[in-house]
Every structure is written in structure tokens, then in C-alpha cells.
Design goal:
The complex is a heterodimer of chains A (313) and B (329).
Chain A (H helix, E strand, L loop, with lengths): L1 H23 L7 E2 L2 H7 L14 E3 H11 L1 H4 L35 H10 L10 H14 L8 E3 H6 L8 E2 L13 H18 L7 H5 L3 H16 L2 H21 L10 H5 L3 H7 L32
Antiparallel strand pairs in A: 2-3
Chain B lengths: L30 E6 L5 E4 H6 L3 E8 L14 H5 L2 E10 H8 L7 E6 L6 E5 H6 L2 E6 L2 E2 L9 E3 L12 E7 L6 H6 L2 E2 L5 E2 L8 E6 L10 E10 L5 E7 L7 E2 L1 E2 L9 E9 L4 E9 L8 H8 L13 E3 L5 E3 L3
Parallel strand pairs in B: 1-10
Antiparallel strand pairs in B: 1-2, 3-4, 4-7, 5-6, 5-10, 7-8, 7-9, 11-12, 13-14, 14-18, 15-16, 15-19, 17-18, 19-20, 20-21
The chains are: A mainly alpha (313), B mainly beta (329).
């Protein structure tokens, strides 16, 4: 007995020394170590492979009663849905215009059913069902979906072994999946090249490779520029544009040129140096401010709270 | 939402979404456990967490289904995309807390669990936890409100809102996701061919004109300012373009400074309305070059049952009389 106590105390000292040492390794030393028992009590996550499923089991037959008491008021007697989600059926509807997503038609992994029922159901008293009941409810819902037999009993191993029909139809995020039709600069070049090509084809020439165009000699390019200029100048539309541009330029010069400065001024600017003088002349009176006492006088009597809605006498 | 000015949402006007009601939690009793693939599993009190160096950043948070893809579409901006808000979030960097426990090399995911009735569970990739995730205790300067996760929530900038687990009580460091009910049967995106996308976290670039928007009325022709908000889970908003002619032409709107990463940006464009019917709309372009798509473009790829992550351009129709309505409804 005595040895037992001595060992116990020695272990406690060693443990706290180890814990202090472990804490000393962190940068801030904030928080305390979680014990294995605390973690086991808190960790209710069930992996898709059934990892962390508890011991115990539950059968379809046991569950009909519990389901009727705990689940049916929201999910319907046969899991057909109501206030709560529909749990059953819809297995041929995924991929149609009116998909019905249920445990049977959509959920990829059966252990998730145990995880969710245990953590969140029934909604008015989550985490109140025994683990046997959670296995049994899971078994019942899977049975209603035709995924386990009516005599099935599920435990950690057999629940993880249930293959859900929709399991392989989940893919990763493929966005951005839509490319807007707005033309951005890089595309603009491609569009311009296309137009060039089409024009060349219409002219009955062989397809113009943009690289060939780039490799044209400077003299050839200059000739081409001169030719296109002279042909453009013969076009009446171009002549009209030039005339219009010249006219607009002339109008702007007449309106904004140095000979067209504004000659009128507002009265107060013309006659007074400051707006104050103008105001005085117009008859405005400025009264001197009353000198204020340096200390605000104390209000006589007890302090009152301000009236929210003062009553008019 | 259409009545908001500026870019910060007051706490009393935040949207709420929960999976098992709002729990009443005594902060003195609340604990956060960090365990799994770490050198030192730890338990923190709220006082402990407030002792860490604090960090404060401005980000948006948005519900993943904001809005869905099928009719009826909302009449007002708030009905349509009202589940997005922006706040200043204060807390401790998750990276710091994970380093305090010491990550093992095989740590790839962190499973976060709430203390609500649903014990809401989500798997977060470790890259995000080490990039910009926060353990938040204050929002816009005051302690979190109960509906927003008091006393502690996870905050993942740019990710769909449901992953920022509220009333956070446990972080489980693992090698693979836990495949919880939420991340398999609920927040997955069903495609027309029957396959579904899982672990689709980011909210892509999006914008909405809030003035003038559905339900409002322009009393007279003449000058009106068009304004709205834009945001992207992938970073900063680079540009917002606005069209007032049913998408025929687009012009750059002015962005309000500062434009912050993974935050709402306000844009403005002066507009002289000639009194004829018009369709006005905005599209956001983020710093990755991503362009906000049209609803038709999204539907062509995703179909109506995709449900989440709808970031379509949303046009408003302005009638000759000035009434503004949803142009796609």
C-alpha cells in the first residue's frame, strides 16, 4: 500500500515535469495539454472508412419502434420526408431534371449516417440516442433504401462495408468552368488574325500567314501605305470626315481662343475685395458674440435625466 | 442591401444562417480543443485565445447559395443576392494556433466542429488554414453576436460562408477530409449528368447594382448615380464594368478606395437617363482576370440543379416610368 502511494506521487511529479517541458517547447505557452480521455470524449468524428466508429451494434427490427418515436414526426413513417429531409428513394433520379437527393440516392458513404445521426439528431435532443440506437436507426434507413436486408444487424465493420450506389459520382471542383464571352486583349489578337485571314480568302488570294505579312520589305509596306492613302482620299465619306473635323477645330478655337475671355464679373467680385464686404453692403448684420463665463454654471437642484418626449405645456 | 451605402455592414444588419439554432454559450465555460495530427493536443479557454497576438482584417462573407439557379428569382437586390456582408473581423491567426500545437508532416486537413445543436462539421484544407484563416472573437469591433458564433468562430476569407464554422469548439487535424454530411450530401454541386462536385470552396467574382435595383423607382429622367458592390473570393476586384444599354456596350465604373482583398468593393458610375426604357447591369473582373459570367453561360454548363455558387451578372430593367424590376424574372 505504501509503495503504491510512493509510486503514485512519483508518477505525478514526473508527469507534470514532462507536461511543463512539452509546454516550454511552444512559442507562446498558451493553453493546456488535452488528455487522451478528454480527446476520446470529445472526438465524435467518423471517417468515411468507418474509423472511430464505436463498439456495439443495432438491428433493423429493433429500430422500427425508435424510428417511429424519434424520427417519424419530421421524416415520415417510412422516411418519405416532411418537415425534415426525405431519407428514402430517388435512386434513379440523380442526373435527371428533377433529382431527389436522399441517403439512398445521393450519400456517398454509409458511416457518415452514423456520424450525423449521433451528432445532430433528433433535432430537439441531439446526442441523446444510445450508440446501439444510432446503429439501429442507420440500419433501418439503409434497409428502407434497400441497401441492407430486413434482418441485418450493423456494427462498425458491417456499416463501413455498405457500398452506397452514388459513391463514385463525386468529383473535385472544376471551376472556373465558365468562360465569359467578353473579349479580352489576348483574344482580340486572335480575332483580328481571323478577320485578316477571312479578308484574304475573300480577295481570292491564298491564305495569308501573319508571319509572311510581317516579313514584307519596308519599301513594299510604304508603297502600300501610299496607295491606300490616295484611294482613301478619293472616298467622299473620308473627305466629309476631314471637313467636319476641321470645322469643329475652328469652332473650338473661336470659343476658347485668347480673344474670347469672359468680360462680365459678378457684382461682389467687381466692387468688393472680400465676400464679407459684399455682404455688409447688401445689408447683412454681424452681431458680436456674448462673452462666455469660463466655467459653465452648475445647474441648481438634483440632476435629472433628459426627457425623451418633452410635453408641451 | 439595396439601401446600404459604403462597404461595411453594421452588425445589426448581418444575415444569419444556422443548421441547428443559435446556442447560448457562457464564454467562461467555452473551450476550444485542438487535437489529431499535432505534437501537442491543446485545450484553450477564451481568455487563452485572447492572449495570442491579435489580427484584424476586413473581408466579405457570403452564403454559398446566393441565389439558386431556378425560378422564381428575387424581386430586389436583397431577395436575390442578400446573403453577403462585409465586416472587420478580429481574432487570432489559425496558423499561429496550429503552430503552437505543432503540425505533424502528414497533416493535410483540419476538421472544424461547432458547439451548436447540429455540431456542424466541415473539413478545411491545411493550405487555407495556414494562408489567411482566423479564429474570430470580434466583428466590427464588438464581440461576435450570438447569431454570428459568440464567443468564437472560424473565418475563412473567400470561402463559402457555411465553412466558417460558428460557436467553434473543436479542431481535428487529419490526413483526409472527414466527409461529413454537410460536405457530401448538402454543399455539393450537382451537374446535369448526375456527377457532383465536392469540396468547391471559393466564391467566384460577382457584382450587383444596388442603386437603382429591383423595387426602386427613378422619379425623373436626368442624372442618376449607378452604384453597387463587387467581390471575389479569389482576391481583389480589378475592374467593374457597367452597361446601361442591355449589354451592347460596357464602361468602367469607378471603384471606391481602398479596394481590399476578399472584401466588398463599391463601384459608382454617373448616368444620364434619357427616360426611355433601359436595362442596366454590372460585371466584375477580379485580379486573376476572371470575368463574371451571365446566367445563361452558367446554366449551359451547370444546369438548374447545381444550386450553389451562382455568381451570374444580374440585369435590372428600368421602365419608361422609372420602375426598376428584375430583368430575368
Amino acid at each position: 500500500m505504501r509503495w503504491h502511494e510512493i509510486f503514485g506521487i512519483a508518477f505525478a511529479i514526473l508527469f507534470s515535469a514532462w507536461a511543463t517541458e512539452a509546454r516550454a517547447q511552444t512559442s507562446y505557452g498558451i493553453g493546456r495539454l488535452a488528455t487522451a480521455a478528454e480527446i476520446a470524449g470529445w472526438n465524435i468524428d467518423i471517417g468515411r472508412d468507418g474509423s472511430n466508429l464505436p463498439k456495439g451494434s443495432g438491428s433493423v427490427s429493433h429500430e422500427r419502434e425508435v424510428f417511429a418515436q424519434q424520427c417519424a414526426s419530421c421524416h415520415g413513417d417510412k422516411g418519405e420526408g416532411g418537415l425534415g429531409d426525405r431519407l428514402v428513394g430517388g435512386q434513379d433520379t440523380i442526373g435527371t431534371p428533377k433529382p431527389i437527393r436522399t441517403v439512398g440516392s445521393y450519400w456517398p458513404y454509409a458511416p457518415t449516417l452514423f456520424d450525423y445521426i449521433r451528432r445532430a439528431m433528433p433535432q430537439n435532443a441531439p446526442q441523446s440516442l444510445s450508440e446501439e440506437d444510432v446503429y439501429a436507426v442507420s440500419a433501418y434507413i439503409l434497409n428502407l433504401n434497400g441497401l441492407v436486408g430486413a434482418n441485418a444487424t450493423l456494427d462498425a465493420k458491417s456499416l463501413a462495408a455498405v457500398k452506397m450506389p452514388n459513391r463514385d459520382r463525386f468529383l473535385g471542383d472544376a471551376r472556373p468552368d465558365v468562360k465569359s464571352e467578353r473579349i479580352v486583349m489576348s483574344e482580340f489578337r486572335a480575332v483580328a488574325r481571323d478577320l485578316l485571314k477571312r479578308r484574304a480568302e475573300l480577295a481570292g488570294r491564298a491564305c495569308v500567314n501573319p508571319r509572311e505579312e510581317n516579313s514584307m520589305g519596308p519599301s513594299m509596306a510604304t508603297d502600300r501605305f501610299a496607295n491606300s492613302m490616295s484611294s482613301a482620299l478619293r472616298h467622299p465619306g473620308v473627305i466629309a470626315l476631314i471637313v467636319a473635323a476641321l470645322t469643329i477645330a475652328a469652332m473650338l478655337i473661336v470659343d476658347h481662343g485668347p480673344w474670347n475671355r469672359a468680360k462680365t464679373q459678378p457684382a461682389h467680385v467687381a466692387m468688393y475685395h472680400t465676400t464679407g464686404e459684399a455682404a455688409h453692403a447688401a445689408g447683412a448684420k454681424v452681431l458680436p458674440t456674448q462673452p462666455k463665463s469660463p466655467v459653465e454654471p452648475e445647474r441648481p437642484g438634483p440632476k435629472t435625466s433628459p426627457t425623451v418626449n418633452p410635453v408641451t405645456p | 442591401m439595396q439601401e446600404f451605402d459604403g462597404i461595411i455592414t453594421p452588425n445589426g444588419l448581418f444575415y444569419e444562417r444556422h443548421h441547428g439554432g443559435v446556442p447560448t454559450i457562457d464564454p467562461a465555460q467555452h473551450r476550444l480543443m485542438l487535437h489529431g495530427l499535432v505534437e501537442r493536443p491543446l485545450i484553450f479557454t477564451m481568455d487563452d485565445l485572447r492572449r495570442f497576438p491579435s489580427e484584424s482584417r476586413i473581408h466579405f462573407i457570403e452564403c454559398s447559395g446566393n441565389p439558386g439557379y431556378s425560378k422564381p428569382y428575387g424581386k430586389t437586390a436583397s431577395d436575390l443576392v442578400g446573403l453577403v456582408r462585409r465586416a472587420e473581423w478580429t481574432g487570432v491567426s489559425l496558423k499561429l494556433v496550429l503552430q503552437e500545437a505543432g503540425l505533424k508532416p502528414e497533416a493535410k486537413w483540419v476538421v472544424a466542429e461547432g458547439a451548436d445543436a447540429a455540431a456542424l462539421t466541415h473539413s478545411i484544407p491545411i493550405e487555407k488554414c495556414l494562408e489567411d484563416a482566423l479564429l474570430v472573437y470580434s466583428q466590427n469591433g464588438e464581440r461576435l453576436r450570438p447569431q454570428q458564433g459568440y464567443p468564437l468562430r472560424l473565418f475563412l476569407p473567400g470561402f463559402e460562408g457555411n465553412m466558417s464554422v460558428k460557436w467553434l469548439r473543436r479542431l481535428h487535424v487529419t490526413a483526409e477530409p472527414v466527409y461529413s454530411r454537410e460536405e457530401t450530401s448538402k454543399y455539393t454541386d450537382l451537374l446535369p449528368d448526375g456527377t457532383a462536385r465536392e469540396f468547391s470552396f471559393y466564391m467566384e467574382a460577382k457584382s450587383i447594382i444596388t442603386r437603382s435595383s429591383g423595387g426602386q423607382r427613378l422619379n425623373a429622367p436626368g442624372f442618376h448615380e449607378i452604384t453597387g458592390i463587387a467581390w471575389s473570393g479569389h482576391g481583389k476586384i480589378a475592374r467593374v464594368e457597367v452597361s446601361v444599354d442591355d449589354g451592347m456596350s460596357w464602361q468602367d465604373a469607378q471603384l471606391q478606395d481602398p479596394v481590399l482583398t476578399r472584401a466588398l468593393a463599391r463601384f459608382r458610375l454617373p448616368w444620364r437617363r434619357d427616360g426611355k426604357p433601359a436595362v442596366i447591369q454590372s460585371r466584375a473582373i477580379d485580379e486573376t482576370g476572371y470575368v463574371q459570367p451571365t446566367l445563361a453561360e452558367l446554366l449551359a454548363v451547370r444546369g438548374e440543379n447545381y444550386f450553389y455558387h451562382n455568381n451570374a451578372i444580374w440585369p435590372w430593367r428600368v421602365a419608361a416610368g422609372g420602375e426598376v424590376t428584375n430583368a430575368l424574372a
